Amino acid sequence: MGFDAWFFARLDAEDKQRRVDDNELEFVWMPNPQSLGKDVNIFTHVLFNHYEAPPGFTFEIDAGDPLFIVDKKSKDFNAEDRAQALIQHLDDRVKHYMTDDIFCLFGSDFQYKAAAWNYRNLDAMIDYMNENHGDKYFFRYSTPSDYVDILAEKEIAWPTKYDDMFPYASGGTDWWTGYFTSRANAKGYVRRASSNLHSSSTLFAQKVLDQSANATEIADVLNANYVLRDQLGVLQHHDAVTGTAKQAVADDYNNRLYRGMEENNAQYNKLIADKVRHEFGQAAQADWQQCLRTNSTYLDCPVAQKNTSESWSMSVAVHNPSSLDLKSLKVAVPEEVNFDVTVYNSTSKAFEPAVAEKSCFDDHLASGEKVRNCHMEIKADTPAQAVSLIKMANQGKAEEVERRTIPEGKEEDADTSIEGNGLRVVYKGMDKEQSTLKFDVYDEVTGSSEPEQFEFSMKYYESYTHAIDHSMQSSGAYIFHPMEGQLHPYPYGDVKEVSISKGNFSQQLDITFGKYRYGEAVESMKSIVHVSIDKELPLIKIDVDLDSLPL
Q1: Mind listing the domains of the chain with CATH numbers?
Q2: Which helix (H) or strand (E) holds 442?
Q3: Helix (H, G, I), strand (E, B) or coil at 390
Q4: Beta strands 5-8 and 42-46: pairing type?
Q5: Which of 245, 279, 311, 482 has a 20 to 30 Å separation from 251 between CA atoms?
Q6: What is the pLDDT of residues 425-479, one digit of tens each?
C-alpha cells in the first residue's frame, strides 16, 4: 500500500505483554512471505501507552492533570516535579525498545478541543526539559516519518512477525469482536449502497463516453456518482461501518447514505429510462422507481402503491451490471394478486410469455404484524452489462407454488429435498434440544452416491451487562463479552415450523424459529432461515431474516 511503517496500539494484551518483556515492541511484519514476498514487509511500532500521552501529562483543558508551570515565582511552580515524573516514565519506556530514540504521543480521542492550551503546556515542557535535562533526553516536535528515518540510519536486526493480529482481546475475556455484528442493519445498508454505486457506475460510464451527451448531462451523472462515493467513503470510518459510533452519529451516517443513494438514484433511474426507450422502444409513463430495501416485502416497493382490486400492469427493468449472464429474477408482490408475466424479446420485437410462479411464506414486520411475503420467480435472461424488460399484468394466471409443512419426526416419510444446478439438498430433521438442522447434499457432477452432510443452527451468547467497576467490561458495540460461566451458546429459538415449496422453477426450504422470553406475551426472538439453490451457479444459499438479539 506504499507505507514505510505502521504505528498502532491495539495489540492483544497477552501478545503485548510478551513483547514488553522481550523488548519486541518494534518489529518487521512479514505477512505470508512465501506468496507475497518482501515487497509487503512493513516496519511496525507498537505504542507503549496506547495512543495517549504519558500518564499525568494530558494537557487537555478538562483532563484534570497538572499543568506544566515553569515560573519559579509562582506558588504553583511544579516543573521540576513534573520533569522527574516524566523522566521516570521515559526510563521505564525506553527499556522495552531496541534503541534510545523514543516516539511519544500527546493527545487522544476527543482532545485538542482547545489546542492553544495544549501547545502552551507542551512548549513549556519541551523548553524546560531541554534546558534542565537535555543531557539525558532531548525533546522536539516530530512526526512518524522523522522517527522512522532516524531508525533507518541504525543497523539493527529487528524481530519479525508472520501471522496476523487477531483475535484481539484488550484483557482477560474482553474480546474485540463485537463490531463484526454491531448495527447489522447499518452494515447491510453500506453493502446495498456499495452495490448501488457499482451498478449505477456502469451506466454512468457509458453516459460519459456517449458522444451525443451534453455537458450538463455529464456533469449531472458525475456529481451524482461523486455524492454517493463520498458518503460511502465516510462510512468506511472505523466507527461507521463497524457500528461503534454514538447513536446520534450513527443516525447521521445512515442519513448521509440515504441522501447519497437518493441523489445517485435520480440519475440512475433516468439512464434506465433512456436505455429502455432506446433498446425496447418503450417510453415510461412515470419515473422509474426502486424498492426502498432489499430482502424485504412488497410494502417497501413501488407495487405497494397499486390498488390490488383494479386491473393494471407494471414494467420491470432488470439491470445486470455484473460480468455473468443472469437467467432469472425475483420481484416482490402482494399476496392477493396473481400476474401474467411477459418478457420482451429483442429479436421478435415483442413481449412473449415467461415462465413464472409465485412463492410465499409467513413473515413479520418490525411492528410484529404478520404478513405474507410473496415473490414472483421469473425465468428471463439478462445478459451481462445489459438490461431486460418484463411486463407484469395483475389478475393473471400465475399460481402460487404449493407450500407443505413437514411434520416433526416425519422427515423420513416425506419428500424433503430441493434441487437445481446439479445439487440436491435433503432435510434430514433436527436436534430439538440444540435447534440444529441436519442436511444431506448430493452432487450430480461428482456422481458420488454418498452425500456430504452439514448442520445449521441458530445460537447466541448472553451479553454480560452487569459491570460495576473497570475489572470486567460490559459487552457492547466493540467488545463481545459473554456472561461469566457461559461456556456454550444458547439456542436462539425453538424450531416452530419447517416448510418446503417446490414449483416448476423455484424450490425452497423455510425454517421458522421463535421463542417466548421472560413472560412476554409475544415471541421476541423470531427468525426465518431460507435454504435454496442458486439459479445461476451450483451454490447452496442460506438467507437468514433475523428479528433481534436478546440484550
Answers
A1: 5-161 (3.20.110.10), 179-280 (1.20.1270.50), 298-394 (2.60.40.1180), 403-458+493-546 (no CATH)
A2: strand 436-443
A3: strand
A4: parallel
A5: 482
A6: 998 888 877 778 899 999 987 778 889 999 988 888 888 876 655 666 778 888 8
